[in-house]
Structures are given as structure tokens and as C-alpha cells.
TrEMBL record:
Keyword Transport part of the UniProt annotation: no
Stored PANTHER family: CAFFEOYL-COA O-METHYLTRANSFERASE 3-RELATED (PTHR10509:SF14), O-METHYLTRANSFERASE-RELATED (PTHR10509)
Record keywords, A-Z: Methyltransferase, S-adenosyl-L-methionine, Transferase
Keyword Translocase belongs to the record: no
InterPro entries given in the database record: Cation-dep_OMT, SAM-dependent_MTases_sf, SAM_O-MeTrfase
Name recorded for this polypeptide: O-methyltransferase
Organism: Chitinophaga hostae
Length: 222
């Protein structure tokens, strides 16, 4: 199949149901202006995160991997006024850009961007007795995805939705001999879900403006 058709349909859907306003297009522009990687979720995926959040009435959200705050803004917009989103970002420069973008979107009162390695910050959230999160979006570096998921479970309650992006990687996950650490990281997570009695999980393939990829969608069992 001509892949151009996925792009056209993705654009059709986002024009119809996930149009970007100035705060979102400014956030995408900031990636170029600040020489940051252009690896944010697509507009459609931002809207998809909102739909998932609203389906579980999410008031408390945890995000791993902020970049310029594009997915942060989509998610924060689906929170009620008293909702809270904590986003973890290893790069202090990216975190600063994201804070400005979140402020520009009028969402600073809901968003707390914390700087550091997620594997260092997650145990701190646990030690601080953070209330369980309703929705967790894992979108940071791929090698420790399984460890991130295990921490996410510790910060969850029955019914929490956990979404992990980029777990198909243009079908590279089909190669059991892959030497790519990112592929190996997501393979470890994907395979661990098979026997994980704590969650009901699946993987949704995604195509469109981004390359062929996929997302884990897992709900914590009652
Ligand atoms: N969620 C963002 C969006 O859609 O707008 C995109 C996130 S980007 C794919 C991954 C981000 O994770 C980068 O900003 C990167 O600096 C950050 N990151 C990489 N390693 C990390 C780590 N160990 N802890 C926290 N963040 C990390």
C-alpha cells in the first residue's frame, strides 16, 4: 500500500478532529528554534491521549519525557481545573522550553515539570507518597521501558491507564536478534506484558504523519 495514503488520512483526521491552536503550533515551532529533536506525538495522538484520559476521568497524570511540552499541553487540557500533571524530563534546557510553552498555553497551574533522570525521579515520587495517578504516559528513553512500567504500576491504582509510546518501531520489534538498545528495551516491555497479571494490555499499531509505530495501552486490573 502507498504510505502516502496514511499521511493523507492522518491529516484528514487531525484537520477534522484534532486541529492545533497557536499554543500547539508555537510549541512545534519552538523545537526548530531551540534546535530540539522533532519527535513529539502527532496532533491525532495528542487527541487520542485526551480521549483515553477522559474515558477514565483522569485528574492526576504522570508523563515520562516532556521534550517541548507538546503532549503535555494536550494532556493538561483534558484535566479538570483542579487536575495535576507531573512530567519528568532529563534535559534542563528542554524542560525550560517546555515550561514556557506550557505557560503560553495558560496551563502552568496544572503542570509540574521535574528535571532529572526518570529512574531517579520515580523512586522520589514513591518516597513522597504521591497519590496514585489515574493516567501515565511513558514517552522517554526506550532501554528502561520495562523498569518505567514497573514504577508506573507502583504509582497506580486499579483502573489506572498506562500508555507507552513507540513500542513497534517500524516493525523492528519482530527481530529477536536486534542489537538496537531501543528495540531491545521495548521488546522487553512488550514481552513482559504477556504474563503480567497486574494489567490487561494490548498494543495498537499506529501509522500516519509519524513512521509505523505503536502504543501499549494497559489498564491496571481490579
Ligand atoms: N512526550 C513528548 C511529546 O510528545 O511532546 C516527546 C518526548 S521525546 C519522545 C523523549 C523525551 O524524553 C526527550 O525530551 C528526552 O530528553 C527525554 N528523556 C530521555 N531520557 C530520559 C530520562 N532518562 N529521563 C527523563 N527523560 C528522558
Amino acid at each position: 500500500m502507498n504510505e502516502d495514503i496514511f499521511l493523507k488520512v492522518d491529516n484528514y483526521i487531525s484537520n477534522l478532529l484534532a486541529p492545533e491552536d497557536k499554543a500547539l503550533t508555537d510549541t512545534i515551532k519552538s523545537l526548530e528554534e531551540e534546535d530540539m529533536p522533532r519527535i513529539s506525538v502527532s496532533a491525532n495522538h495528542g487527541k487520542f491521549l485526551q480521549v483515553l484520559m477522559m474515558s477514565c476521568n483522569a485528574k492526576r497524570v504522570l508523563e515520562l519525557g516532556t521534550l517541548a511540552g507538546y503532549s503535555t499541553i494536550w494532556q493538561a487540557r483534558a484535566l479538570p481545573e483542579n487536575g495535576k500533571l507531573i512530567s519528568l524530563e532529563v534535559d534542563p534546557r528542554y524542560a525550560e522550553v517546555a515550561r514556557k510553552n506550557v505557560e503560553n498555553a495558560g496551563l502552568s497551574h496544572k503542570v509540574d515539570i521535574r528535571v532529572g533522570k526518570a529512574l531517579d525521579l520515580l523512586p522520589i515520587l514513591i518516597a513522597e507518597n504521591e497519590e496514585p495517578f489515574d493516567f501515565i504516559f511513558i514517552d522517554a528513553d526506550k532501554p528502561p521501558y520495562k523498569e518505567y512500567f514497573d514504577y508506573a504500576l507502583k504509582l497506580s491504582r486499579p483502573g489506572t491507564l498506562i500508555v507507552c509510546d513507540n513500542v513497534v518501531r517500524e516493525a523492528k520489534i519482530l527481530d529477536p536478534h536486534s542489537t538496537d538498545e531501543r528495540v531491545r528495551g521495548v521488546q522487553r516491555l512488550n514481552e513482559s506484558l504477556q504474563g503480567n497479571k497486574n494489567v490487561t494490555a494490548t498494543i495498537l499499531q499506529t501509522v500516519g504523519v509519524k513512521e509505523h509505530d505503536g502504543m501499549v495501552i494497559a489498564v491496571v486490573n481490579r
